[in-house]
Each structure stands twice: as structure tokens, then as C-alpha cells.
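Need the bound structure for flavin-adenine dinucleotide, inputs here:
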Amino acid sequence: MELAAHLEAEDIVTWHKILHRQGWAVTNWPLEWGGTDWSPVQRYIFKERLQAAPAPEPLTYNVNMIGPVLIAFGTEAQKQKFLPGIAALDEWWCQGFSEPGAGSDLASLKTTARRDGEDYVLNGQKIWTSQAQFADWMFCLARTDPQAKKQRGISFLLIDMKTPGITVRPILSLDNSHYLNEVFLDDVRVPMENLVGQENDGWTVAKFLLGNERSGIARIGLTRGRLARARRVAGQMLSAGRPLIEDLKFRERLLNAEIELRALELTQLRAITAPKDASDLAAISSILKLKGTELQQMAADLLFEAAGPWSQSYEPLGTCAVDDADWAPGIESTYFFARAASIYGGSNEIQRNIIGKSILGI
Ligand SMILES: Cc1cc2nc3c(=O)[nH]c(=O)nc-3n(C[C@H](O)[C@H](O)[C@H](O)COP(=O)(O)OP(=O)(O)OC[C@H]3O[C@@H](n4cnc5c(N)ncnc54)[C@H](O)[C@@H]3O)c2cc1C
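Answer from helper R.:
Posting the output first, comments after.
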């Protein structure tokens, strides 16, 4: 079941720590920082099985975003200070990139970081900051040189969320959850030692992070689990007196989605086993993001349609027309949250632009 959709923050931390004790929370990191020597295919299989179960994945902001950034760009002192807590999820991180008016066009962000003695002083607003209400730290992009050309004057900073001047305000979303936030920064002091990479070169760090974010977003196991669930539910629900799974149109859509998923999996496997400098990999993270999120939505549509009115339940239903209705909770919220998949991590229109430019040369 996809009851995982309603996990509390403590459940996510508990599960992450169970994986960490086993050495499985940061499988993509180097051994010296607690990672594994698994091959890319082994790592893929592990993740795919977690998603299909479904079990929560290790916290992505920590494991796939800020951890790899610090390993690649951090100073030795930053690595020693932060990486153990990031890996163990002793500290929860969030991503402060988007702003009102700076989403797709991220480089037009307006939050400023002015130098004052040994600190930067930040002013501005972030938006759509996922799970910031739980975060101990935020990695953030801010403009350190207002005169420089867009991408050039930006720096990548680490902010302790307990610093005075930070306000986190909830945004309730369509699936009735509090996942998103606005984060206001009013004269927030950040020590210069929390700068990652070079001052005014945060764009290089951000691009590295976004590439990782997009390639992890295909979530093939999640779609596989969702389609299997849709198949089970359609076997129980009746349409015109017969199980929905026997309806030819529904069956065809389900099969198409399953076939497309298999094709995407082959693309993903080809990408992770290809040499790092292969030229046709230029836009691969965009292709995986685009197709992966389309399939996540397709699977959520099929599941929602199969469950019909039962999908509205957040709790197990008890007695209902179907013998075993414990599959029902969370389907509606899954459907609504899936709408966001084509927006976050860079909208799918933007991914099409990248693919058009890098592969088709248009
Ligand atoms: C659930 C969710 C979680 C998120 N979590 C985070 C987070 O933790 N941290 C964070 O920093 N951000 C987060 N985001 C923000 C996300 O990265 C942005 O929403 C996304 O980049 C799009 O930006 P925008 O919302 O400002 O839309 P806009 O950029 O204003 O775009 C509006 C529409 O115009 C289209 N468009 C824009 N430019 C072009 C173009 N050049 N060509 C074609 N079409 C275009 C877009 O595709 C979109 O359909 C999250 C978003 C969602 C929905």
C-alpha cells in the first residue's frame, strides 16, 4: 500500500536511521564518508526495490543534494562538520532555491547576501521550500554581487534555520498536506565559513545539484509499485458488472504504461552504465525527469480511476462494497500530489527546452 504518503517526520527519521545503521542510507557516497562500493546498477536495484515496496527513500535533500555537493565542493572543515549529521539525518536539510518570480528562471533570484565583517547578511524570500518546517539547515542561493551578470553574482550558502530573522510560513497544497513553505529572510547573519565553493560562483554548484536532483526523479520503482497497485485494485472493482481489469480500454492504458516504464528503465540502466563522458548523456537527466514524471502521473491517474469514490478515504474503510478495502487510503492525495511532479525539479517544459537544445540542436 502507498500509506507511506502519510508518514510523519519522525517516521522518516526513524526509517532513515535504520537504513543508516545498516550502511544503506548514503549508498551513492564514497566509502570514506559512509557510502558503499556498490556498482551503479546495484545502487539502482536497491533504490528501485525501496520505491516499489513502497518504503521511504533516505531523505533526498540530505543524501542526493547537499551531501554530494559538500563532497564535491566543500572545504575539509565543512565536510568534517556536516557530512556525518547529513548521512545519519541528525540534521534535516531543505532546499532554498526558488523565489517568487525565480523558478524556471532561477538565475533571476533576488535574495541578497551582503558582506558585513565575517558574516553575510541575507534579505529576501524563498518559496515552495519543501518540508522547511522540519529543517535544521537550509542550503540556499543568494546574490552576492548585484552588479554581475545574472548567473555570475550568485553564491551557495548554508544557513542554520535557528538563526534570528528566519520565518517559515506554511503553504497548504491540493492534496491537503503541509509539505510546502515560504521562507522569509530578514537580516539573517550567515558566517562566511558557510560559503560553499567560490563567492559568486554558486551557479556552478547549483547546476551540479540540479543534475543530481533530476536524474533521481524518474523513480521507476515508485511507478512500478503504483501500476501494480492499480492492477490489483482494478481486479477488485466492478465496471458494468465485471472487474475493471477486464475492460479493454483500461487494460490497454495499463499495459501501455507498463511497457513505457520498462523502456524508461532500460534508458536509465543505459545511462548509469555508460562512460561518464559519453556525449549522448548531455541531456539524460532531463529525459529521465520528463518521462519519469509523466509515467508517475499516468500511474496515479489509473489508480485513481480504478479506485473511484473509494480513493477519497484517508483511513482504512472497514465495511465497504469491496471485500478488502485496505488499499484505499491515500489514493486521492497520491493523485493530487502527482500533479506537482511535472513542476518540481525544473518544470517539464524546461526539460523539453534542454533536450531540444542539447540533442536536437534547436
Ligand atoms: C511540490 C513542489 C516542491 C518543490 N520543492 C522545492 C524546494 O524544496 N526548493 C525549491 O527551491 N523549490 C522547490 N519547488 C519549486 C520548483 O522548483 C518550481 O516550482 C519550478 O522550478 C517552476 O518554477 P515556478 O513555480 O516559479 O513556475 P514558473 O517558472 O513561473 O513557470 C510557470 C509556467 O511557465 C512555464 N515556463 C516558464 N519558463 C518557460 C520557458 N522558458 N519555456 C517554456 N515554458 C516555460 C513553466 O513550465 C510553467 O508551466 C517545488 C515545487 C513544487 C511544485
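Comments: Residues 69 and 316 are 41 Å apart (CA to CA). The first strand starts at residue 93 and ends at 96.
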